[in-house]
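W.,

You were right to be curious about this one. When I first looked at the sequence I had no strong expectations either way, so I just let the prediction run and decided to look at it fresh. Below is the sequence, 146 residues in total, followed by the output.
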Amino acid sequence: MKGCYVLLLRLRHAERIVVGRLGSFNFTPGYYAYVGSAMLSLEKRIARHLRGEKRKHWHIDYLLEVATLIAVFSIISENKCECTLAQVLRSLQGSQVPVLGFGSSDCSCGAHLFYFGENPEQAIYSSLKRFSRESNLTLIFERLVE
């Protein structure tokens, strides 16, 4: 399957993280939603994100070392839709861009990582459900922790 995805993470404590060549940043406790795409294998990309030990390749790999992955939203699509999903997340109430350029080095988006002080799971689900219905795409939701 091909498509795009949103990873929802929870960071319990403030952390200073070196994000590869992007630099060193302070991350506030709360919730982070990361948008990515997998145009070869959505299943393999998500499985890689779920693995603990891995070589750091993407910006999200650095945040995944210290944050808990709590949910995955997958959208099955033959076309890249991650920039559109980033716009959807950016428009949600309480959404903030914590690090400019995070996850968006190959596009013109400001970032593909969004911060929320409160758990945005329901708002993300509702927005992606609407997007997938309007775009005639399939949304798959998986909650990893309660």
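Here's what jumped out at me. The chain has a mean pLDDT of 94. And, maybe more interesting for your project: The radius of gyration is 14 Å.

Coffee later to discuss?

I.
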